[in-house]
Amino acid sequence: MITIALPKGRLFDKTSKILARCGYHLTLGERQLVAEEPRGEIRAILVKNSDLPTYVHHGIAGLGVCGSDVIYESGHEFFELLSLPFGGTRICLAGKKDESPDSRNAAVLRVATKFTRFTRDAFHQRGIPVDVIRLDGSVELAPVLGLAPYIVDLVETGSTLVAHNLEVKETLGNTDVRLIANPAFYKYHFDRVNRFVSTLQEALKAEAGEG
Ligand SMILES: Nc1ncnc2c1ncn2[C@@H]1O[C@H](COP(=O)(O)OP(=O)(O)OP(=O)(O)O)[C@@H](O)[C@H]1O
Ligand SMILES: O=P(O)(O)OC[C@H]1O[C@H](OP(=O)(O)OP(=O)(O)O)[C@H](O)[C@@H]1O
User: Fold this and answer.
1) What does the pLDDT read at residue 119?
2) Which residues form the ATP phosphoribosyltransferase catalytic domain (predicted)?
């Protein structure tokens, strides 16, 4: 049986829908975090998005479905088997719409974010000193309340920024949702994992064909 870690947040519905399309029907009782499908081929564990790389890195799950943003933050190496056609976003530097023109000229750019590794790397690569304040959510509050003039966060529709009178100052990258594998698991179960990936690809093709 393959154990696959699934994020229990916003990516769960689309991920379980595509797995059902592959014939893997996961049934979950209320509050249940482990699901097996009737054929006994896969077992799914439902974990917090940010914890998912930990489970795959330690081999508790051989496979996982995870945002590339979270994969990067984990610092772990995985085999990245597939990019899924949903859940893509931009990762952006944002700040107040009406900021004073010279606020980006401060000696050090102060940024609040969940994505501390990404933010440090992105600005250090450009030689820009950055003071990163770690938050775990509701990051848009930071510029509104004066914790930091800038945030680095995911932007999908942009409506959270608009609701706080913020705007994208710069797009730093794109994120996508990936099927990842623990490298050792992949090497030992190469055929089974590749069959699973092919089944998933077929299901994604069929879904795309339906528009
Ligand atoms: N609008 C969006 N905001 C945040 N993440 C998004 C969005 N759209 C797609 N994603 C992707 O979904 C993933 C977030 O999933 P999820 O909602 O499970 O976690 P989360 O909100 O980051 O919370 P936590 O890590 O605390 O569980 C991100 O890693 C990102 O790749
Ligand atoms: O561009 P949008 O469509 O508005 O989406 C982006 C928002 O969604 C995410 O937050 P989430 O809902 O995960 O809450 P969080 O602040 O607790 O991370 C992200 O961190 C942004 O705040």
Assistant:
1) 98
2) 48-201
CA of 6 to the centre of ligand 1 (A): 12
Do 81 and 183 sit in the same domain of this protein?
Answer: yes
User: With a 6 A CB cut-off, is 160 part of the ligand 2 pocket?
Assistant: yes
Contact between 72 and 50 under an 8 Å Cβ cutoff? The reply is: no
Ligand found nearest the CA of 92: 2
Whether this model's ipTM surpasses 0.85 comes out as: yes
Å from CA of 106 to ligand 1 middle? 31
Res 197 pLDDT > 90 = yes
Read off the pTM.
0.94
Residues 6+ apart with CB under 8 A from 171: 90, 91, 92, 155
Q: What domain count does the chain have? A: 2
Pocket test for ligand 1, best of 45, 89, 176 (most atoms within 8 A of CB): 89
Q: Given the CA of residue 51, which atom of ligand 1 is nearest to it?
A: 25
Within this chain, do residues 34 and 71 fall inside the same structural domain, yes or no? yes
Residue 186 is encoded by which pair of tokens?
Answer: 């992949």
Which ligand lies nearest to the CA atom of residue 138 in the structure?
A: 2
Range of the domain at 59: 2-88+176-209
Tens of pLDDT along 60-98? 999 999 999 999 999 999 999 999 999 999 999 999 998
